[in-house]
Amino acid sequence: MNLDDIDTVGVVGAGTMGAGIAQVAAVAGYDVVVRDVEQRFVDSGFGSIEGSLDRFVARGDLDRSAADDARDRIEGTTDLAALSGADLVVEAVTEELSVKQSVFGDLAESCSPETVLATNTSTLSITSIASVVDRPERVVGLHFMNPVPVMAGVEVVVGEHTSEATVDIAHAFAERLDKETWEADDKPGFVVNRVLMPWINEGIRAYDEGVAEKGDVDRGLRLGTNVPMGPLELADHVGLDVVLDASETLQAELGDRYRPAYLLKRKVEAGDLGKKTGAGFYEYE
Ligand code: CAA
């Protein structure tokens, strides 16, 4: 299989990442089938896709008709078997190894042996996810960044048994979605989260230990290093639960330098998960 053999893309999970991946694949011209476990999650995914497409139209980056065509190329389902005709599937379900392994086991049963099975995991082992299928050479990491429709890059992660042909398709597919790629070995956190998570946690500690007000921690990093968001703003954007979960996975594998900040844990315990719940380090409408 090569890039030209890919017509239909499956996406498992219609949350923030899955919806974004479905959107960019449809805008690139692919037929997309997106699946979530309940219809209300599928509907919510379509809501965010439509909202995002409207923003592209509003700022003149996409014609209304192209946006409508992209929307029409996406089919929603609650049936994983509906992805059986997909040539490439991207899994974007919850960051739990057992859940991802179960999805991959089911995909391997229903999809063709040729289908590329990609995971959007942010910190889990590609090799371990691939260990449950009979074709680990077809399994690869395609780690998209949030918000998917806006961010320029995708990390391609190579598992122990991922074949060169699969890696090549992963790069070419992401490039077809108008993303630039880089490649990482299957080591905890790959490139981005290995570096980003300690940066976020250190920002939280700097605030918690009184180095500066939270707004100044963020302003300092924005103005001092030219990043679009400071660490606390970015934590709110990504989701504090996601940051905590990734930090704990990294800590388990790489040791104490990845220990999550105490204040991060406390906010997650309080249910203040960032933008998505209306409060994290900051408050949102
Ligand atoms: N769909 C369409 N357009 C969107 C959008 C979306 N989902 N989100 C933002 N935009 C557009 C806006 O319309 C706006 O366009 P114009 O400038 O033409 O008006 C532009 O993007 C900027 O948006 P905003 O003005 O609303 O806000 P902003 O300037 O603060 O940008 C941001 C928002 C793009 C998120 C920017 O702040 C940013 O790049 N932040 C850093 C995000 C980041 O680092 N993401 C990676 C996180 S790590 C990760 O994802 C990996 C992991 O595993 C945890």
Helix and strand layout, with pairings?
Layout: E1 8-12, H1 16-27, E2 31-35, H2 39-58, H3 64-72, E3 74-77, E4 88-91, H4 97-110, E5 116-119, H5 126-130, E6 139-144, E7 153-158, H6 164-176, E8 180-185, H7 192-208, H8 214-225, H9 231-238, H10 240-254, H11 262-269
Helix pairs in contact: 1-2, 2-3, 7-9, 7-10, 10-11
Acetoacetyl-coenzyme A is lined by residues 52, 55-56, 59, 122, 145-147, 149-151, 192-193, 196, 228-229, 234, 237-238, 242.
**Helical proportion, percent range:** 40-55%
Specify the structural class. alpha/beta
Counting DSSP E segments of at least 2 residues, the number of strands comes to: 8
Q: How much beta, percentage-wise?
A: 5-15%
Sum up the overall morphology in one term: globular
Secondary-structure element pattern, one letter each: EHEHHEEHEHEEHEHHHHH
Low-confidence stretches: none
Which compounds are bound in this model? acetoacetyl-coenzyme A
Description:
By secondary structure, this protein is α/β, with parallel strands linked by helices. Helices cover 47% and strands 14% of the residues. It has eleven helices and eight strands. It has helices at 16-27, 39-58, 64-72, 97-110, 126-130, 164-176, 192-208, 214-225, 231-238, 240-254, 262-269; strands at residues 8-12, 31-35, 74-77, 88-91, 116-119, 139-144, 153-158, 180-185. The protein has an eight-stranded mixed sheet with strand order 3-2-1-4-5-6-7-8, sandwiched between helices. β1, α1 (16-27) and β2 form a beta-alpha-beta unit. The longest helix has 20 residues, at 39-58. The chain is globular and about 55 Å long. Acetoacetyl-coenzyme A binds at residues 52, 55-56, 59, 122, 145-147, 149-151, 192-193, 196, 228-229, 234, 237-238, 242. Acetoacetyl-coenzyme A is lined by residues 52, 55-56, 59, 122, 145-147, 149-151, 192-193, 196, 228-229, 234, 237-238, 242.
